[in-house]
């Protein structure tokens, strides 16, 4: 179920990734990573942080990237990951970490 927005929209589409940071009250920092891709389908949002989950064909992905990110951010550093995504409009991952 791999979606490539440039193939569905055509030549006018320009991929974009935006990263922002800010200091939050309570000695925390927020990192936001936002794209203008295809978004995450509702049917898989609850699965994307699970180890070995992938939307790529067999042999093309291990499904460990987001799972490892979750372990590092949430388990090791006591942070959070929130996902805002709307299919067809892109996704935003909001990472909050305590300042050491």
By secondary-structure content and strand pairing, the structural class works out as alpha+beta
Which blocks of ≥5 consecutive residues have pLDDT under 50? none
Query: What is the CATH level 1 assignment?
Result: Alpha Beta
The rounded distance between the terminal residues' Cα atoms is 39 Å
Fold-level CATH name: Heat Shock Protein 90
What share of the residues lie within helices?
A: 10-25%
Tell me the layout of helices and strands.
Elements: H1 5-9, E1 17-24, E2 28-35, H2 65-76, E3 80-86, E4 90-98
Antiparallel strand pairs: 1-2, 2-4, 3-4
Task: Spell out the key features of this protein.
Heat Shock Protein 90; 2 helices; four-stranded antiparallel β-sheet; single chain; globular; alpha+beta; 100 residues
Question: What report would you give on this structure?
Answer:
By secondary structure, the chain is α+β, with helices and mostly antiparallel strands. Helices cover 17% and strands 32% of the residues. The chain has helices at 5-9, 65-76; strands at residues 17-24, 28-35, 80-86, 90-98. Strand 1 and strand 2 (28-35) form a beta hairpin.
What's this entry about, in short?
With 100 residues, the protein is an alpha+beta fold. The protein has helices spanning 5-9, 65-76, and strands at residues 17-24, 28-35, 80-86, 90-98.
